[in-house]
Specification:
Layout: E1 2-7, E2 13-18, E3 20-21, E4 26-27, E5 31-32, H1 33-49, H2 51-56, H3 58-72, E6 83-85, E7 96-99, E8 105-111, H4 120-130, E9 134-138, E10 142-147, E11 158-163, H5 169-176, E12 203-205, E13 218-221, E14 227-230, H6 233-246, E15 257-258, E16 266-269, E17 283-286, E18 289-292, H7 297-310, E19 319-322
Parallel strand pairs: 8-9
Antiparallel strand pairs: 1-2, 2-5, 3-4, 6-7, 7-8, 9-10, 10-11, 12-19, 13-14, 13-19, 15-16, 16-18, 17-18
Helix pairs in contact: 1-3, 1-5, 6-7
Length: 324
């Protein structure tokens, strides 16, 4: 990004903003930063004037706030080679995918009506399953950019945030350059400021983990950032059930939970008994619920993935960090 002082048609001094793309070698049209700031201010005024419309309608929020802001930073929302609504992934369909020149998604965007919260854990699982580094959550007014592949708690994945109603237009532009077309293709993953070089902790997703190659001890990091130390394989399955309970996904009304394709065994129950009355062979209690953990390492992984999917969570969103 570069600037130069110039004069507009009326002879007034103004500032021009250059937004240079690193690849392929090209330039966006030279545009006045004052003009960009004016457009941000117009969107803010639109949000204030029609707040009730945007609160009731996600479609209106998308058309009148979100897509104009994306166009501000060079995304042609009418070109499916750049912006693809309802992009299919293994875990679901994010509202928008912002695509690079090679057709691969650089960022996913989650849209909600003004004032509503996005389901960040679900969208981050979309990104992890597809290897997409960035997710943008927005209601058209507040925008948040997350680096999704960082194996750290959810709040620490946040890269930048802006609010078109509260932040000055110039500040909005400074922060939102992170989503400019071309910027994502040249950004490196954010790195913590350390005075010396450290090797990254080996990590895999639960979905891609091979029990023969990746063994305890490790730490399971769930999509919302909660962490569970796993020293034995059975603790992995127990941690999945515990997390599902603590996040309100698995409730007592949904128990007992059967193992997949089986009528003779329970995976979780309020008492350590299977359907025919037989005792659990290796019960582990979490949050007042008994979990049957008498499985091989391979089946522990299978049961953990099954339990997550049963309650709408993609196993690709659970990261396993080597070491306890």
């Amino acid at each position: 990004m570069g600037r130069e002082i110039c004069r507009n048609a009326g002879g007034d001094r103004c500032t021009r903003l250059y937004i240079k793309r690193i690849y392929p070698i090209a330039l966006y049209p030279i545009v006045s930063i004052d003009d960009l700031a004016r457009r941000v201010a117009e969107l803010a005024e639109r949000a204030r004037k029609h707040a009730e419309v945007f609160r009731r309608s996600e479609a209106a929020t998308r058309a009148s706030l979100i897509e104009p802001f994306l166009r501000l930073w060079g995304w042609n929302t009418e070109d499916p080679a750049q912006v693809r609504p309802e992009f299919p992934t293994q875990s679901g369909r994010p509202d928008y995918a912002l695509l690079g020149d090679d057709g691969r998604p650089l960022m996913f965007v989650g849209a909600k009506p003004y004032g509503r919260q996005e389901d960040l854990t679900q969208y981050i699982s979309y990104c992890v399953s597809e290897g997409v580094g960035y997710f943008v959550a927005t209601d058209g007014v507040v925008w948040e950019v997350y680096y999704t592949l960082a194996p750290r708690p959810l709040p620490e994945k946040l890269v930048t945030r802006w609010d078109i109603l509260r932040d000055p237009p110039i500040e909005v532009l400074r922060k939102s350059f992170a989503i400019a077309r071309g910027a994502g293709e040249r950004q490196e993953a954010p790195r913590p400021p350390t005075p010396h070089v450290t090797l990254p902790t080996p990590h895999v997703t639960l979905a891609s983990m091979s029990p023969s190659k990746f063994k305890p001890p490790f730490t399971a990091v769930f999509p919302d950032g909660q962490r569970y130390g796993v020293k034995k394989w059975n603790e992995l399955l127990a941690s999945v059930v515990d997390w599902l309970i603590k996040t309100g996904r698995l409730t007592e009304r949904q128990l007992p939970l059967r193992t997949p394709r089986s009528t003779k065994r329970y995976l979780a129950n309020t008492r350590p008994k299977h359907p025919a009355g037989h005792d659990f062979k290796q019960p582990k209690m979490v949050s007042g619920v008994y979990v049957e953990t008498h499985f091989s390492a391979k089946d522990i992984k299978r049961m953990a993935c099954f339990a997550l999917r049963e309650f709408g969570v993609a196993p690709e969103g659970v990261v396993l960090e080597a070491g306890s």
